[in-house]
């Protein structure tokens, strides 16, 4: 009989690529991971790994076993969900991953509703970049997480995970204002749920709007994040590579630098819902950011995951909830 704990190690190796990465993620020593995978090979009765120096890759039999492991682990998540439902009354920790703009604008209201309905549940929020969510969920470090995708950075399918769409956001080009017309409250300005200080009317030619700043300094998120990749790819699609001056992940700080004349940036709608600054002009672009709720496949029916999802959907502003494109 194959051991499910060793199957999990093999699955992690398939996704992380190295034994060292698996060991670090699951708090094992590399030698312990290698030993357990060796035991799994003996249980399987044929080679599952090919070793070339320090590199390891799965054999066809190993890749096929990983597919079975995904199905087994999904059924175990379903069994856990069924047991939680049978016990009744939610309690214990719920580990939630969320990115900063959602944590600041939507998650607090969801947690208030969750505490009111399920006082025994202990939600624990950890700021997690969507690029790191898949590994954290599969390793069991998170139970549920908010993820996002952009038009220029589509979400890749992650084996073993399920993502449900939540909402979509408009994207804005943030640049230093040239006059008082960008001030909040100007005639025709969007409502409070829209980005303050944004120009009214239909989105302009996105390529032309970005190309107008081909020679400008840019402010992006830190490399390795989806937000950084989005800005670079959007500019490249417009025909140039941005000259990045500042790198930071807090959109409030990004807008402060724009107001100080330090560069231009692309920001999402929730990232722009800070006190309006007349020194910043926000021009709506055609592109969009889509946010979804991710969890391990089979865990969607778990009462705690379902309760958090319901509270989160109720907390989404109506103008965002109306756009539920697949994340």
Automatic annotation (TrEMBL):
InterPro entries: LysR_HTH_N, LysR_subst-bd, WH-like_DNA-bd_sf, WH_DNA-bd_sf. Keywords: DNA-binding, Transcription, Transcription regulation. Residues 2-59 form the HTH lysR-type domain. SUPFAM superfamilies: Periplasmic binding protein-like II, Winged helix' DNA-binding domain. Residues 181-212 are annotated as: Disordered. It holds the Pfam family LysR_substrate. PROSITE patterns: HTH_LYSR (PS50931). The keyword Transcription regulation applies. Belongs to the LysR transcriptional regulatory family. This is LysR substrate-binding domain-containing protein. It comes from Streptomyces yangpuensis.
